[in-house]
């Protein structure tokens, strides 16, 4: 026998797919769903939590549960893909705003991430990513100056990887990645459209050249309702 919350979950998904609850609309409140399905509030919460976990809804503080299923973009976890390349695959209207570009001595945290000392200089590049008019990604890049002697705002607005590979002729090989979910900082709330959202997804990238030199550290900070983080894995039989 299927648990009642799974029956409710499947019914709401079906109603979404039939257009009863379109993207960006609010589904009924917990109380309304409790009465509609003649069940307990706890059962409704289990169904809503499963809908959120599977990317059908986003719980927005002060509003309720917003339908988001068809609004999500697939963000590949494996591979090194620039925002420009990703936006092209999405078929979405995308724009990059360079918030900061400076050459500086890194603080202790950045020195630790890049495994460098206080004598090294880094380029700090902070970029806001707009998709369909919404500011939903904040990219914070740190590049070793000894590897990237010069860089301009125009390059940062276009594609840093295109510049690194085709102008500087660097051979970018691989990246180590870490994904965490945390509360937004004041900077996140200032620069991104986060009204009603109380979490943010951070992808940390440690990027290496073909000679195994670590030359770039990036924090890509994403609003959680717009992306599915996807990967492909093949089992190797021992």
TrEMBL record:
Domain of life per record: Bacteria
CDD domains in the record: WHTH_GntR
PANTHER family: HTH-TYPE TRANSCRIPTIONAL REGULATOR TRER (PTHR44846:SF12), MANNOSYL-D-GLYCERATE TRANSPORT/METABOLISM SYSTEM REPRESSOR MNGR-RELATED (PTHR44846)
Protein name per Swiss-Prot or TrEMBL: Trehalose operon repressor
GO function terms (MF aspect): DNA binding; DNA-binding transcription factor activity
UniProt keywords, alphabetically: DNA-binding, Repressor, Transcription, Transcription regulation
PROSITE patterns reported in the protein's UniProt record: HTH_GNTR
HTH gntR-type domain segment(s): 2-70
Designated gene of the protein: treR
Gene3D superfamilies cross-referenced by the UniProt entry: Chorismate lyase-like (3.40.1410.10), Winged helix-like DNA-binding domain superfamily/Winged helix DNA-binding domain (1.10.10.10)
Alphabetical GO biological process terms: negative regulation of DNA-templated transcription
């Amino acid at each position: 026998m299927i648990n009642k919350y799974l029956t409710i979950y499947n019914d709401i998904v079906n109603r979404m797919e039939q257009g009863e609850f379109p993207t960006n609309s609010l589904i009924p409140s917990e109380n309304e769903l409790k009465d509609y399905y003649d069940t307990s509030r706890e059962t409704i919460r289990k169904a809503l939590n499963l809908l959120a976990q599977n990317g059908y809804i986003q719980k927005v503080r002060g509003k309720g549960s917003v339908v988001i299923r068809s609004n999500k973009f697939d963000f590949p976890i494996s591979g090194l893909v620039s925002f420009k390349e990703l936006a092209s695959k999405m078929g979405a209207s995308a724009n990059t705003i360079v918030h900061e570009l400076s050459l500086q001595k890194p603080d202790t945290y950045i020195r630790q991430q890049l495994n460098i000392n206080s004598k090294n200089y880094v380029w700090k590049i902070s970029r806001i990513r707009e998709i369909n008019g919404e500011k939903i990604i904040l990219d914070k890049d740190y590049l070793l100056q000894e590897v990237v002697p010069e860089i301009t705002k125009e390059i940062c607005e276009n594609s840093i990887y295109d510049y690194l590979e085709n102008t500087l002729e660097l051979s970018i090989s691989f990246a180590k990645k870490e994904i965490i979910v945390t509360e937004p900082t004041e900077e996140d709330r200032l620069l991104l459209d986060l009204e009603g959202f109380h979490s943010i997804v951070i992808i940390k990238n440690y990027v290496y050249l073909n000679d195994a030199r670590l030359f770039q550290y990036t924090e890509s900070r994403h609003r959680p309702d717009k992306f599915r983080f996807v990967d492909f894995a093949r089992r190797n039989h021992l």
